[in-house]
Every structure is written in structure tokens, then in C-alpha cells.
Amino acid sequence: TSPIAWLRTRFYYLLIRLYFDHEFSIEEFTRGAKQAFSVVSKLLSQRKLDLLEELVSAEVLQVLKEKISLLPDSHRDALAADIDAIMYTTEGDVRIYYDDDGRKFVSILMCFWYLNGANLPDDVPGEAKVFQIVFGDENTKEKKHLLTANYEFQREFTEGAKPDWTITRIEHPRLLE
């Protein structure tokens, strides 16, 4: 990320700690986001969308129901990310906003890069190249793809609101389009 974006996100983390949650830690949030990403991506891959109701917003869940039913098996398998296969995680965007009723919200977009062994074709939709990595020697080759996903987490900080983060956007470029 650019230095300006890095400074901007750090400023927002300071605001979150000062005005919303004095114990907020981006390190702890990132650990929880990785766990949530792994669980949600596996449930998507297995088409167990009914188990996502507490984790994902109703709007996102409706869109996922439509998209998942149309995916080929290879793309659906590629959605699953084991927590140990997450190679890199970074924050994309942080937003603090109020709605018309005065409710307070924080949204954090997380970007994940993960390895997956799904049998994807070389020409992935969107004509974008998916990196392939081969592990092992000639006899025990294992091909993995380095894939990306973006999940946006939102929490309401209005007094009396549940202290839960909800996923309000799920993107798996070239797979879930």
C-alpha cells in the first residue's frame, strides 16, 4: 500500500480506539478476520450457506445464493481457504460513518492471498493469470494456485448494539463473479 494509505488507516485505528473501542487492536482484529475468512470460504465452497446467517449480512447472503449455484465445481473448490494456507493479509480500506438515524459504524476491508489446490483451468475467467506454484520434485508434484479474496467486516458501535463484526462484502476475483 502507499504511505498515504498506510497513514490514513493508522489514523482511523487511532480514532476507533479513542471513540469506539478502547481495546481495539488491528493485530487481534486481523487474527479474527483470518479465522472468519477461513470458515466462511469453506462454507461457501461446501454450499452450506444456511450456516452463514450469523456471519454474513442478509444482502450478501442473497447474492451468494445466486452466484454459488452457478459456479462450476472447480471454482467452488477454489473458494476454500485453510487458515494455514493464507500467505498474506492486509487491510484495504477503513471507514467510520454514521447513518441517518445517528447509528455509528466501522468498516474494515481485508485482503487475503491464499494457496489452494483446486483443479482450475489455465485460462481463468476474466483473462487474468492466476499464479501457479509447484511443490515437491518430479514424482510428487503438487500444483497450487495463489488466489485473492476481499472481505469487508462491519460493526455497529451504537450504544446497545451487538458487539459483533459482520461480513458485508465478499469478493473472490475471477472465481465468484
UniProtKB/TrEMBL annotation:
Transmembrane segments: none
Coiled coil: none
A biological-process GO annotation: protein insertion into mitochondrial inner membrane from matrix
Gene Ontology MF term list: ribosome binding
A cellular component term, taken from the record's GO annotations: mitochondrial inner membrane
Domain of life, source organism: Eukaryota
Protein name: MAIP1 protein
Source organism of this protein record: Leiothrix lutea (Red-billed leiothrix)
